[in-house]
Amino acid sequence: MSSKVSFLAAGVLFLSQLASAQTPPFIGNLLLQPGLYAAASNSDGAAVTIQGCTGSPSQNWVFSGGQVHVFDNKCLDVTNGVNANGNKLQIWTCSNGNPDQQWYYDMWSNRLSWTNQGKCVDLTGGSLSDGNRIQIWDCTNNNPNQIWDTGYMANNLPYHSQDTQAGYNSCGTGSNQTSLCQTAWINSADDFCIWAPPNVGKIGDTEREEIAWCTKSGRGTRTIPDGTLKGVHFVKTRDYVQLSGVGDFTKVNIPAGDAGGELDNRGSDAKGNPVGGLVYGNSFGTALQYHEWTSFISDTQFCFRACVGASATSLCNHIYDEMGCDWNMPANYDPGVFENCDGDDDLPMGVYGTSTWHQGTSPTPTAHPAASSSNCKSLPTVSVGPANRRRELGKFEYKRAADPFFTSPPM
To answer: Can you give the residue ranges of the Ricin B lectin domain (predicted)?
Structure first.
């Protein structure tokens, strides 16, 4: 009887979270990626199209009161209120209560739907070509053309991305060991950040406030003290970048003996652990924001994976928070090895054939074997050096891997 009550209570909690998920977890002016763009003119009826992200006023969207604002007084609008697949979107002067301007953003699926109409904002034909007009289409689960990530350009970060954030995201170009910067980067075995406490404390007690500790100076973060890292393995696959390694992480405020825990972009409330933590990198596009990432760290071991593409949520799953690095991210954790490699995707954590294992269910399955890697290039060691900020502060790119198993609806 008690197990049924617990199950129902969890179900009610989940539904209540969805019901309240009217807006993205981030705050302020947001990019809708890939590149949702209103016509440069601030005119009623201007088309909404795909364009490369530049951070211009026509790309700064604000979610408020169930509406999606641009140019201050214009709103995302369903043309003529026609509820039909393929109807293209426009902007129109905002008016309270206008049903054609009511939108619901589900922070768990990253879908933007026309409230109570069964239609979602849809990337027409799956094309990322500049000028492609955005449409509405029947909402369907796991449709990559209906995934709209929200975030920021790396060269125009807000001071806070969450209203309950302990640190900040606009971190400057210096470095100091009292920084509370919560913007991390992951590029290679000698250019990356880890999440760790601002002051001495166990990961389980400080997960909401962790800060970025990095191997490169110049991004406004703290730097990882030389001698901390004892081995680092970096791999880039088609769908993610991943770090695994060992070290003495008591040097970054993790107490000796702490088994650690998971940090990820979701957390229990979709605000992330740490709250407001943002992750960027240059592997799949210049200064690309990673919207799906997961990381574990203890006093002696760490791993960090950031994903792109249609499989991002399964390859960067974050529901196995008690299983640690070896189970979630099987990889090379050998001390004395510092290397950059290419590699194949690991199998999704927790998926075994057609079955999905759920944490806490007995017996616990063994971890998947580590995927193969190649073209490895060794480094003598990893120590602090300056970041290449010129590249990161230049043009923003958005690239998304294709899903070979999904057929796009027609244009």
So the answer is: 24-151
Rounded to the nearest angstrom, the gap between the alpha carbon of residue 90 and the centroid of all alpha carbons in its chain is 27
H runs (alpha helix) in 99-216: 203-206
Token pair for residue 101? 């301007």
* Burial zone of 411 (CB within 10 Å; 0-12 exposed, 13-18 middle, 19+ buried): exposed
Q: What is the pLDDT of residues 31-60, one digit of tens each?
A: 887 766 666 678 999 999 988 888 888 888
Give the chain's end-to-end CA distance (angstroms, integer).
Answer: 52
Alpha-carbon span 193 to 52, nearest angstrom:
27
Ranges of CATH 2.80.10.50 domains, the chain: 31-151
What is the rounded CA–CA span in Å between residue 306 and residue 285?
13
Measured between alpha carbons, how far is 293 from 329 in angstroms, rounded to an integer?
A: 12
To the nearest 10°, report the CA torsion of 286, 290, 294, 299.
Answer: 40
- CATH architecture of residue range(s) 31-151: Trefoil (2.80)
Q: Please provide residue 326's backbone torsions phi and psi, each rounded to the nearest 5 degrees.
A: -60, -35
**Greater pLDDT, 147 or 168:** 168
